[in-house]
Automatic annotation (TrEMBL):
InterPro entries: Deoxy-glucuronate_isom_IolB (IPR024203), KduI/IolB_isomerase (IPR021120), RmlC-like_jellyroll (IPR014710), RmlC_Cupin_sf (IPR011051). GO terms for molecular function: 5-deoxy-D-glucuronate isomerase activity; glucuronate isomerase activity. It comes from Paenibacillus taihuensis. Its EC number is 5.3.1.30. The lineage of its organism: Bacteria, Bacillati, Bacillota, Bacilli, Bacillales. SUPFAM superfamilies: RmlC-like cupins (SSF51182). It is an enzyme of class 5 (isomerase). Pfam families: KduI. This is 5-deoxy-glucuronate isomerase. NCBIfam families: myo_inos_iolB.
Length: 272
């Protein structure tokens, strides 16, 4: 299996973790990511240390509290494929939080360097921007959970729903150079859910010089590391695809560069 794919455990560990990515395990500097699964009544506690966190409730309901604040009975969707916007909680560095499941719960904990510039807060679904990108079979639905217009030190978090037979992160784009204003350097993780668990998605990760050039078959619950390069995704017919993206880098802005070989798809009227 490719080193870019991170598989979940068969069962959660004693901290509820199904999957965990650290900067050390990924071989990069900024992005951390984990998925926890808890039964009703179970809880976990985390200390953020020098990292900020965004807790995204993927499915289920929970109570979340920090040292100073608490949010009760948050969460509304029981599956990401309801396509409703999620409840999330932002927690700054130098804090701690407790997550208690009120129902069976799956939550993503997204982390990146924090600098103490923001307070803990609830991100309600109504605050999550919804948009449709692309056209035809490159159309997909976006939920901007923590975009650069919203307060955070490093994190960028977004959900993407790709209908079966469609492509997303397309035309292929990259963000692996600190070359602002044209391109920002952002590490990225993709966490995949497939509506029918026996299904799969396909993701290609490649650089201009093809020193990295992999085509990955990704199944439900797996994550993909994108340290550099272009990274388009395809949802095969019959299998709707969801993924949660976490990005972070030295500057908190998303400026991408399209693969010049395929950029014509967005600008050539005959392709629409």
């Amino acid at each position: 299996m490719s080193k870019l794919i991170v598989k979940p455990a068969e069962q959660p560990d004693d901290q509820g973790r199904l999957l965990a990515i650290t900067p050390e395990s990924a071989g990069w500097q900024y992005v951390g990511f984990e998925v926890v699964r808890l039964a009703a009544g179970e809880s976990i506690r985390r200390v953020t240390g020098d990292r900020e966190a965004c807790i995204v409730l993927l499915s289920g309901k929970a109570d979340v509290k920090t040292r100073k604040k608490a949010w009760r009975e948050i969460g509304s969707r029981m599956s990401v494929f309801e396509r409703t916007r999620p409840f999330s909680v932002y927690v700054p560095n130098g804090e701690e939080f407790e997550l208690e499941a009120l129902t069976e719960l799956e939550a993503a904990i997204c982390t990146a360097p924090g600098f103490g510039n923001h307070e803990a807060r609830l991100i309600n679904p109504e605050e999550v921007g919804r948009e449709t990108r692309g056209y035809g079979n490159i159309e997909r639905q976006i939920h901007n959970v923590l975009p650069e217009q919203q307060s955070a030190d490093s994190l960028l978090v977004v959900e993407v729903f790709t209908p079966n037979g469609h492509w997303s992160s397309y035309p292929p784009h990259k963000h692996d150079r600190n070359a602002l204003p044209d391109e920002s350097l952002l590490e990225e993780t993709y966490y995949f859910k497939i509506e029918q668990e026996r299904g799969f998605a396909i993701q290609r990760v490649y650089t201009d010089d093809r020193s990295l050039d992999e085509t990955l078959v990704v199944t439900d619950g797996q994550a993909v590391l994108v340290p550099e390069g272009y990274h388009p995704v395809c949802a095969p017919p019959g299998y709707n695809c969801y993924y949660l993206n976490v990005m972070a880098g030295p500057v908190r802005t998303w400026k991408f560069h399209n693969d010049p070989d395929h950029e014509w798809i967005m600008v050539n009227p005959s392709a629409k």
